[in-house]
Design a protein that fits this description.
Shape: globular
Helix content: 55-70%
Number of strands: 0
Strand content: under 5%
Radius of gyration: 17 Å
Largest sheet: none
């Protein structure tokens, strides 16, 4: 049993930089911030979601060894997120009714700010709690194809977005199957803990 724990920890943490506590803290902070963000967006209290995500991202950057790499990865993931979320909204796979970004509750074609922030938050996991996926592009693609749609389904059940089309979950799964290896490759390039 100790061999399994040691193997898991050693694959999760870069030698000398990450420990089990940091990995667990990163995972828990992401989960808490994700829930706060989605619930806040559903209740049209986007400032709260942005505030919580800013704290989580700030903690990640401050704790990183290479701050510029950390910020670069976050910005890259946010830009990719805006592109993917806007694509999904354009093909009507998702709908965001966000009064801060589209007056009067109009259906948005561009990703709302809180969704872009979620992608930045997600970036904070790649070199910490999701570090074990580094170099495992096929596995990450499969994980994205499954976990991506489940995440959006959870968000829609909480009222943060609408999945209006029969193909919504399929489109989301395809996007995440492609994006996970891309984001992991970027995380390897901008590893703030290497």
């Amino acid at each position: 049993m100790n061999d399994i724990v040691h193997m898991t920890v050693s694959r999760t943490a870069a030698p000398g930089t990450l420990g089990v506590k940091r990995v667990i803290a990163n995972f828990l902070l992401f989960q808490i911030a994700w829930i706060v963000c989605v619930v806040s967006a559903a209740r049209h209290v986007q400032w709260l979601s942005l505030f919580v995500i800013a704290i989580a991202i700030g903690a990640y950057v401050v704790s990183s060894q290479h701050k510029l790499k950390a910020v670069s990865l976050i910005l890259f993931c946010m830009m990719m997120g805006v592109a993917i979320e806007s694509l999904l909204a354009t093909i009507r796979a998702t709908q965001f009714n966000d009064h801060l970004n589209a007056g009067g509750g109009d259906v948005m074609v561009f990703a709302p700010v809180w969704m872009a922030a979620l992608w930045g938050l997600f970036a904070t996991t790649f070199n910490v709690s999701l570090r074990w996926l580094n170099g495992r592009y096929v596995l990450s693609s499969l994980l994205g194809a499954i976990a991506g749609p489940l995440s959006y389904l959870s968000g829609s059940k909480m009222g943060a977005l609408i999945l209006p089309a029969d193909y919504s979950l399929l489109a989301i799964g395809l996007c995440w199957a492609v994006m996970m290896p891309v984001l992991l490759s970027a995380a390897k390039h901008w590893d703030a803990f290497a």
